[in-house]
Description:
It is built from eleven helices and 14 strands. It is of the alpha/beta class. Strand 2 (37-38) and strand 3 (44-45) form a beta hairpin.
Amino acid sequence: MHTEYGALSYQGIPPASGAWREGFPQGERLFYDFGPFTTDTGFVFNQVRVAYQTWGALNHDASNAIYIAHALTGDSHVTGEAGSGHATAGWWNSLVGPGAPIDTDKYFVVCANVLGGCQGTTGPASAAPDSKPWGSRFPVITIADMVRVEYELMGFLGISSYALILGPSLGGMRVLEWMVRYPDAVRGGLVLGSTAAVSAEEIGIHATQITAIELDPHFNNGDYYESAVGPIAGMGLARRIAHLSYRSETELDVRFGRNLQGTELPRNGGLFAVESYLDHHADKLARRFDANTYIALTRAMTLFDLGEGRGGVEKALNTITAPLVVVGIDSDRLFPLRLQQDIVDSAPGADELHLLISPIGHDGFLVEEDQVARFVGHALNRVEETTSTE
């Protein structure tokens, strides 16, 4: 097997899949295997592998642990350099480390790649019991499935409760699921740019992206791992659609306007600058991600409804009494502020709707790290205040 997997290179055509696979350099990943595990749809994995990373040290009573839940195309590499085993640098590099807002001299920080992911945790690109990639055989998974896997990891690490669980977007959905499903295991939560139930528009955006991938002639029903060319065009189109929802209309217009990329006019085959920008992000994702994982995680988000089987969203949120900080991004058109306000209105543990001010849009959680740091500090203070009064 090809064993080169390191800092992202734009040389040549993208691989059929950008997934990390067995035999590649491990990088800073650690692994935990357990099983059997039954998904919400009834599929049984005899064994699940979880790829995770940690920073800092667990204290004597295991009370200083923080869990970070990554977004759709994130992974366990929250902080650190790109290099052997890691295609990109940490996605929240400035937030985690010694003396950082999440201070690893004080806290033990954990982040795992989700079930269905493509960076070491069991997913479509992983080897099934027959040693071939799961591919088309990988089951539909849910946000709850991801959280139950994360809960297994928590037990393995000897942690009885997290001081704080935080995450943006898909990660925020998991924070809410954690706080409802395992209330005794979460002393505080931070939800950033997310929702308690995916809206109709988001379902439609997801469906369009999934269709773009599945219509790629190289998709082969999800069994493309041994092919020379994978469904990179379809995933690239999906990424372009998604990226337009991740950025605000204002930010795109101010940044690109009707500027050209180069000197060739669009009527003669040239590109507008914004087209080149979207092309770049499509190419970049193809070199570090996997099309089946994109489908699996996007579908899990589509299915997310915190109130399913719990009497509705409001009733489910009403069980959250631990300190909860809910952050909305003022320019977010993917998860607009009303969705975060709904969480605040129904969760007793939420104090108010906090605003992240940014022209960027949904991706503000990646760009506005100083503001995110303040919200993290507020969330940790609320947990500490609650603990001191008990």
